[in-house]
Amino acid sequence: MKKIILGILSLTLFASTNLYSQDKNVWKSLSDVSYKISEDQFGELYVPVFSEESKKLEGTEVEADGYIIPFEGMFKPEHIILSSLPLAECFFCGSGGPETVMEVMLTDPIKYTSKRVRVRGKLVLNGNDPEKLMYILKDAQLISE
Fold first, then answer.
1. Tally of domains within the chain
2. Which of 23, 36, 102, 107 falls 20 to 30 Å from 5 in CA-CA distance?
3. What pairs with residue 33 in β-bridges?
4. How many Å apart are CA 39 and CA 79, to the nearest integer?
5. What percent of the chain has pLDDT over 70?
6. Containing domain of residue 124, as a range?
7. Are 104 and 78 in contact (CB under 8 A)?
């Protein structure tokens, strides 16, 4: 009986560790980005150059975990900004770079929480529209809070 319980606990721990590392690999893959300087009518613009690993993820369904960034007056329950880093360290508030955040377009609205959340959706790489973040998750669903 002890062996069965230990076996189940081991499998549970392995499964949760594997899922956790999968999430970290998504953010790790997305962190491998460089920039080239381009110009538009407003001046210099930094354009992302995505790694081959990131390009392979484009169009696929991925899971990412992180924190909802609460922009005052801009939080929409179906369109959120997700940061791989806590608020104090995120791209907009701290030391994180633009590769640590993504726009998430949810199929169902959610309530704001300061806790870490997990979402799943189709990854889009944005290297053209400076009004959007460079990573966008479309048709996303909240997996867990």
1. 1
2. 23
3. 50
4. 29
5. 80
6. 2-144
7. no
Query: Residue 3, exposed/middle/buried by CB under 10 A (0-12, 13-18, 19+)?
Result: exposed
Residue 87 confidence class, pLDDT cut points 50, 70, 90 = confident
CB atoms within 10 A of CB 72: 5
Separation CA 51–CA 141 (nearest Å): 26
CB 102 within 8 A of CB 133: yes
Can you give the pLDDT at residue 21?
38
pTM, to two decimals? 0.77
Taking phi over 0 as left and psi of -120 to 50 as alpha, with beta for the rest, 37 belongs to beta
Q: How many CA atoms lie within 13 A of 120 on its CB side?
A: 5
| CA dist 87 → 70, 75, 81, 92 (Å) | 9, 15, 11, 8
Q: What integer is the mean pLDDT of 100-123? A: 94
Q: What is the pLDDT of residue 30?
A: 94
Q: 3-state class of 135 per DSSP?
A: strand
What's the CATH number where 75 sits? 2.40.50.140
